[in-house]
Amino acid sequence: MTQDQRMALTRAKRFINLGALTALAVSGGADLASAQTVVKWMHVETVPAYIEVWEEIAAAYEQEHPDVDVQLQFLENEAFKAKLPTLLQSDAAPDFFYSWGGGVLRQQSQTGALMDLTEPMNADGGAWAKDYKPAALNGLTYDGKVYAVPYRMGTISFYYNKELFQQAGLNAEDIKTWDDFLAAVTTLKEAGITPIAGGGGDKWPLHFYWSYLVMRNGGQEVFENAKNNEGEGFLDPAIIKAGEQLAELGKLEPFQGGYLGASWPQTLGVFGDGRAAMLLGFEHTEANQRTNAGDGKGLAPENIGRFPFPVVEGGAGKVTDTLGGLNGWALTKNASPAAVDFLRFFTSPEQEQKMAAAGMIIPAATGAEEGLKNPLMREAADQLAASTWHQNFFDQDLGPSVGRVVNDVSVEILAGQMSPEEGAQMIQDARELE
């Protein structure tokens, strides 16, 4: 196969999904058969520009390893979550797949479906392991064993509309504590401005508030005890207090009208259209609000600022404790040595720096954040670099059954439909049933 043919095939892989693989194998059998080893890479990415960067990286690897054919396989997010457990136990299992880490990855590791990466990561004095930030590697390690290769990190922060803050006479730098934040919400309302864009329809966007309040009140020890069903679990007084503070926010009616039915894209649109002053969201907020704004442009980058979730006075948590994503790539137990080698190449600092420069990720690879060009994403990366405790999303870390309850409870407490004590008890009950 010539390099031009290989590049053409690589570009075509953007459209490969599980249903199309058989047809591709038949129609392109001669080309595919020329590769001695096929590496199947399953992902959920939908942004064409990002997939193109991946394809370029795969093509570069294939050029150096002409006996390897890297195939991108796509499944839509919800279909991925639904079908992956069955795929992992079948002959159609990919060599490696996207993982959100947390309780789901732990459960997958316990089924024996995953490759234990501890030995290759620690070979040669831990040369491979040293490519990644320790917090990223630790977050994908269970019972002393590494089960995924770190890929990206992220942190949830407040983003705000500078013009609306100026109209209300607010300075974001003055928001240091939870009481400061509630006061800012009140000030914005008095100025006739909707304080926060909220997405209650998807539920999980609102669990960020409860999670951060648990972290700020209880600190890492309280959360770890609750997660491990130790001590007072989710009935710890610090966790009850977090629920009380969440209820207090809800009573201020800080969100846009109809927020309980709003999806996350709609929520981003509310912020991007300038119809709310703040959004508690991901590191990609600046780009995503543009995409979802009514005019397709959204707020100008220079009109968006960010600040960390404030501390709670008297709480054990620190402002430098961060909540956010920790994503990696998990190898299946029968993955080929070529798949392991490609994944090491793909997540190397050099390649992750390219992805950072394209605005795709806050990289997990050491030093790769130097590629970041977007100022707000670089701020998020710097915040992560100084993190004293990086906690994966609660609904991911606690596993799917408890995570769903956390999301439900967060919305119910905010909406005034459940007491903090009832919410804590529901989460505790779900944890004990696992």
TrEMBL record:
The keyword Signal applies. GO terms for cellular component: periplasmic space. Coiled coil: none annotated. Its main location: periplasm. It is found in: Periplasm. Pfam families: SBP_bac_1. Residues 1-35 form the signal peptide. Keywords: Periplasm, Signal. The keyword rRNA-binding does not apply. Belongs to the bacterial solute-binding protein 1 family. This is ABC transporter substrate-binding protein.
